[in-house]
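Hi R.,

As promised, here are both runs. First protein below:
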Amino acid sequence: MSFNIALSGIQAINEQLEAVSNNIANSSTYGFKSSRANFSAMYAGEQANGVSVGSLTQNIGTNGSVESTGRSLDAAIEGRGFFVTRDSQGTMSYSRVGIFAADNAGNLVDAAGRKVQGYGPAVNGTLGVMGDIKIPTGQIAAKASTGVKYVGNMSADWQVPTNTTFDATKPDSYNMVKQSVLYDSLGMQHTVSQYFVKTGSNAVTVHYGFDGAAPSATKALAFDAQGQLPAATNSGNLTLTPTNGAAPITFSIDYTGTTQFAGEATSTTNSTDGYASGNYVGVELAADGSVVARYSNEQKQTVGTIALATFGNEGALTATSDTSWQANAASGLALYGTPGAGLAGKLNTGSLEGSNVDITSELVGLMTSQRNYQANSKVITTENQMMQALMQAL
């Protein structure tokens, strides 16, 4: 009987050593969760018959340290949750390893080549359906300008020009000129010139010229005694008709925030909402889980939002590798959401979660297992000596 009990102890310790060795070997593996061998007694009726490893407990609930990588498609989850991926057979896997990339088909994939799951671009504030995240790797179309935002200071020190007949070719007929860039439906740039002419103590008239042509439209700006425009004032609708086949550009110029103070005339904002077409140059993750494609025209486009899964009993998940799990009846169904929503943690982009292995504890456990192994070996040796002595006595 003692032989069997000691033998079961050695076998159980071997299984424990496998768990400890695997923990130590993966102490530098991103997203790895340590496991622990749980011993249980074996009985034959009411008689103790040895020991076995009853189960392996995964320490999923404890997060590893966050390690900065600086890579735009790396992400660590701060809190609960798992990244969701789908393999070629359609099987869902869950992992804490946020190493992503775009494959040659434009899919966002993890380090194992599985397709990352997420929500489509939001429409009217509502996220799209959950599925594969596709990244458009071609061009982004041009957007025609619909408005120009101009904010500046029309100096109160200006004098009415000596040449009272405005002429864009004669600088003495206006006080200041500024150019703004517009884009047509084909993405070509056009210039709108704004000639500011002081016409009275609190009045400035703006003359508009398009693409170097003589100005034909005007707008009067009337300031109050405090040098402020009394209300949101814009130019109304202006129209520029390109000659390259693009659609006419109908736009407005908003002067809200423009002042008339003493001192130098300044321009603090001169921007438009249009842009030329651009080529895809890369993709990055935002802290809210948004997958953002970047283009050569300095535009960004949200193409999806990464989904996170949480479980009622995440410790019961079935491990399919050192860093991947699958759901089962004990873990419960996955609850999907976006980072930071519900029970799901937030994302720390440009970082990865390290292993949660405590090397010191594992080494102590390794030494304890060695002592236990030696003790069980000693039991077998002693039992053997007793049997030899008994046989000799007979």
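And here is the second one, sequence first, then its structure tokens:
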Amino acid sequence: MENIETLKSQTLAAVAAAADLKALEEIRVATLGKKGSVTELMKGLAALTPEEKKEAGKGLNVLKTEIEAALDARRAALAEAELNAKLVSEKVDVTLPVRPENQGRIHPVSKIYEEVAAIFGEMGFEVAEGPDIEDQFHNFNALNTPANHPARQMQDTFYIPNPESDNFDDSYVVRTQTSAVQIRTMETKRPPIRIIAPGRTYRSDYDATHTPMFHQVEGLVIDKNITMAHLKGCLYDFVKAFFELDELPVRYRPSYFPFTEPSAEMDIGCKKTKTELKIGAGNDWLEILGCGMVHPNVLRAGGIDPDEYQGFAFGMGMDRLAMLKYGIPDLRTFFESDVRWLKHYGFVPLDTSSMTGGLSNNGGAAR
């Protein structure tokens, strides 16, 4: 039988000298393949005496293990070297100037986010955030939403099973509104509170004006002696600044939301024709948001005494705001990743929105 130590030294030397993965595979086949040298030696064990077979078998098993370990180590080293070489060859100099014809665009929703934050930031609001996956307490219970409310039905809400409980009431939800952030803020922050909570929300719906994932911004103000007049003044200043109009007719219609009382929907003036919708003075009205005074039960759920504090809240869809302001007819196109659409409706990068520098006139969408 061939000397095992000699075979070992020759094979390990060949493995160490392998220049690429192809050469390494050839060594593996030559030694450990069906007709490899180690495999042939193992086949020859049958002709040995029991004592010789025991000793030779032990040595061949050790040899096989050492060769396999050497092959794996060399394979990893070659793969890493190959990856590094590829990264070097495909390196992109990000400091090079962008070619004008290939310049990227900011998505309209991102632009609306900047505009909303700029307007409310000027009013003293802070931006608050929360998780997309919520428990039912923060998404429904604490917001005074009863168990039989239609919004809690499975045809409207995406539920996620709780692996630690079989009880449906313990299931998680992909948040249906960013109002849950209001509860989390009240739990961790003492009044006075003045926040907006923009972010993604999710509902089981899909058509020209609804998508399963969309963007909302909620607002919350809590302090002593807050009234409906403060709410109306805040929202009136917002819509004028957002649509960049000196005057904008508004009206409030009584409505119902579980988490506010009294509740209202805000309409803005507009002029509608078969081919055009113009925001401003006109004979028509367009609903834009829901609002109201925070329900005492919601304040209690957030750990705030409703006998001492009161506040107002509002919520609106940022996708809808983008559609109205920039004339985008179909909400579904927001999420189709069409570069041509983004080039038409997108905004020039690095032109940020501010109340002093302007909202949408710093490199607005192409028209």
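A quick note on the second one: The chain has a mean pLDDT of 86. Let me know what you think.

Best,
J.
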